[in-house]
Write a structure and sequence with these properties.
Blueprint lengths: L17 E7 L15 H12 L3 E6 L4 H7 L1 H6 L2 E5 L7 H4 L2 E4 L4 E7 L5 H4 L6 H14 L2 E9 L6 E2 L4 E5 H4 L10 H12 L3 E5 L16 E5 L2 E6 L5 H15 L3 E6 L9 H5 L24 E2 L3 E6 L5 H11 L4 E6 L1 H4 L5 H4 L1 E4 L2
Parallel strand pairs: 1-2, 2-3, 5-6, 8-9, 11-12, 14-15
Antiparallel strand pairs: 1-16, 4-5, 7-8, 10-11, 13-14
Length: 358
């Protein structure tokens, strides 16, 4: 099935009911300081919150199995968490797992080509072969059809769907040199419509400043219902404010209601302690004290039981929780300390991939 849209398949909204969530246990030394010993308890906290309302499939390498079993023993024993013994290069399930589509009766997974956010042009690490195989492996484990979109390069964090025919993305990411340089914007849009069952693609100009994914939409804008989005926002003059204004103009021009969600007030950076704990691969770009991490409250995750909201020890933490609580009055808001997660390069939305309920 090369054109899911023709067969009535579409990508449901994240706020629609899930049957499960896919995650991958953290391990890679170039992303997670000290063998992820500080990040894994936060991963476990996230998984436990999700597992209250839906099953979690957790991919774990053989070397990470003991730590996962220790931190999630009750959930594993109850069946709320099912472990997959799968080797990956890193743990960003949003970008490596399939993007799921359905026709209301059947579920299928889209297998995009993955090249570590830019491949030879500006990829983030030199080896991604295991990550690139993960979507097909997940479909096999779930016993669903795997629809290959290859050689089209896409990460799940670069698109959001409202489940009613509209997909949002960013020009900054999808038109970057490391994705699909041989395709025009119109050709890329046609692929999004064909595989995600969309009738409209809204192209935001920009993502977040210093986002190493080349501006994934899930750090700057997300649907909270079919015709409303939250948009990362700052009133402080500068590049990010200019980006927000440009994105706002596009969203309002498309007829969407926009709720502004502030960014953290203070920049989030590595400490020397963090830097001393990394174990890089040959050829991997090393982190530094001056790196600004792309911390954003927009990178929340909507699951059946709750909305998981990153917190950064910032004065805007509370405001983000209050705004999202109004957006999702029927769901529990679950704030969690995301400072160990953001060190890996993303946040809770990047770590999760929902499987829609059919």
């Amino acid at each position: 099935m090369k054109a899911p849209k023709q067969h009535g398949f579409y990508m449901p909204a994240e706020f629609a009911p899930h049957s499960a969530t896919i995650m991958i246990w953290c391990e890679r030394g170039g992303s997670w300081p000290y063998g992820a010993k500080n990040a894994r308890p936060i991963f476990a906290q996230i998984i436990k919150a999700i597992a209250k309302g839906e099953k979690v499939y957790l991919a774990v390498s053989s070397s990470g199995m003991a730590s996962a079993r220790q931190l999630l023993s009750a959930q594993i024993n109850s069946g709320a968490v099912e472990l997959w013994t799968v080797e990956t290069n890193d743990c960003w399930a949003r970008d490596m797992a399939p993007t799921f589509v359905t026709n209301g009766e059947k579920l299928s997974g889209i297998d995009w080509q993955f090249n570590a956010w830019g491949g030879a042009a500006d990829g983030l690490y030199p080896q991604w072969d295991k990550d690139d195989k993960f979507a097909a492996e997940a479909c096999k484990l779930l016993n669903i059809d795997c629809i290959s979109a290859r050689p089209f390069v896409l990460e799940g964090g670069s698109v959001h769907s409202n489940g009613a025919g509209t997909v949002i993305t960013t020009e900054e990411c999808l038109l970057s040199a490391g994705r699909n340089p041989n395709l025009s914007k119109a050709q890329i849009e046609e692929n999004l419509k064909k595989y995600l069952g969309a009738s409209r693609v809204i192209w935001l100009p920009y993502g977040v400043v210093d986002d190493e994914t080349n501006g994934h939409v899930d750090n700057i804008c997300a649907f909270v219902n079919a015709d409303t989005v939250v948009l990362g926002w700052t009133d402080e003059a500068g590049e990010q404010h200019n980006r927000c204004k440009a994105d706002l103009e596009v969203l309002e021009g498309a007829g969407l209601k926009v709720i502004k969600l502030p960014f953290p007030k203070k920049a989030v950076r590595f400490t020397q302690y963090d830097l001393d704990g990394f174990n890089y691969e040959n050829g991997e770009i090393e982190r530094s004290l001056t790196d600004n991490l792309a911390a954003s409250y927009v990178n929340f995750y909507i699951c059946n039981a709750a909305v998981l909201v990153p917190q950064f020890g910032d004065e805007n933490d509370k405001a983000a929780v209050e705004i999202l609580a109004k957006c999702f009055p029927e769901r529990e808001i679950f704030p969690f300390d995301a400072r160990e997660i953001i060190k890996g390069g993303g946040n809770v939305h990047c770590l999760t991939q929902q499987i829609p309920k059919v």
